[in-house]
Amino acid sequence: MDYLLIALALLGVLILAGVGLVVPRLRRRPEPPLPRTEVDTRAEEDLAGPPVQAPESDLSTGILVEPPVVEAPAPTVEVPEPTAGRLVRLRSRLSRSQNVFGKGLLGLLSRDRLDEDVWEEIEDSLITADVGVDATREIVDRLRERTRVLGTQSATELRALLAAELVNALDPSLDRALRTAPKEGVPAVLLVVGVNGAGKTTTCGKIARVLVADGRSVLLGAADTFRAAAADQLETWAGRVGAETVRGPEGADPASVAFDAVRRGIDTGVDTVLVDTAGRLQNKIGLMDELGKVKRVVEKHGPIDETLLILDATTGQNGLAQARVFTEVVNVTGVVLTKLDGTAKGGIVIAVQRKLGIPVKLVGLGEGPDDLAPFDPAQFVDALLGTDAPGPTA
Length: 394
What we know:
- The radius of gyration is 41 Å and the shape is elongated.
- Strands 5-4-6-3-7-8-9-10 form an eight-stranded mixed β-sheet, with helices on both faces. A two-stranded antiparallel ribbon has the order 1-2.
- It is α/β, with parallel strands linked by helices and 394 residues long.
- Helix 4 (95-109) packs antiparallel against helix 5 (116-128) and helix 12 runs parallel beside helix 13 (348-356).
- The chain has 14 helices and ten strands.
- Strand 8 (334-338), helix 13 and strand 9 (360-364) form a beta-alpha-beta unit.
- Belongs to the GTP-binding SRP family. FtsY subfamily.
């Protein structure tokens, strides 16, 4: 009996213990699921990024050796084409002028009978070609006299007569050389002036290429501070030939930028400083006065060696009015005629020189970087007529 009681007591204890364990678990709330973690299965090399070269160490000395530094390649510096013979190479660009001179005039002069009507046609052709009234009369009078004295000429001889008269009208005695050599440690200073739309800044960059092609070291001054694009454009032109550009913030005083450019040119020892000025409207008195200020400030370093006036050849006789006003403000020493390959007529070269007494020193015959050519009267007439032009006659 005692054993039975003891067994029943143990059984009761076990039952109570089991109930105590099960009931709390049934009352416990289920726990929220753990957050899911994504595992990046990419290759280890991809996760690490580009390899980083650690400093190497010399085992014998224990000194860290830094890896070599790879420098970015230097910008390519272009070598401009030689200036000698450029006008000859670009003669095909004068095709429109060749139609007036090489075909029109020569066709008239080659007629069997040169009567008054023919001479009037010759005169009209020259005036239409922008030669100018006074220059046209002189050319026609000399041609009439020489054909009368020499008698009826062959087509070849008449071409030679016309070529000689055109060369004389261009006055080959004028000095067309650019003064670009430094003097006593001071670089030559070239001031570039002109009106908006004449291609002034582009031509300034091409002049720099002409100077570099002739062996000069050049520095450019971006004194056209009214247009940020002008300074950027000039800097691009300079970079292509390895030249430095001095510029100021947009709206800065142009005279100050020009002064700093010349001073920088003196410090660096370049041969020539080329200063691009803002496009001037010749009928704006305030702007022309500012151009005079640029000239005076630059001359504190020394005299300006060249002042080049950029003229658009397609403006014809209207360009002469622009040129006259510029000559009253600055001492223009040379003219650069741009866009002579377009709708321009070659006679404008004669008109500019006759009216201003200033030599045409450079002519633009295309959009290419090396399409700016030193002007030579005989080569120019040769290109107009399509024949070897003779030298000037007395």
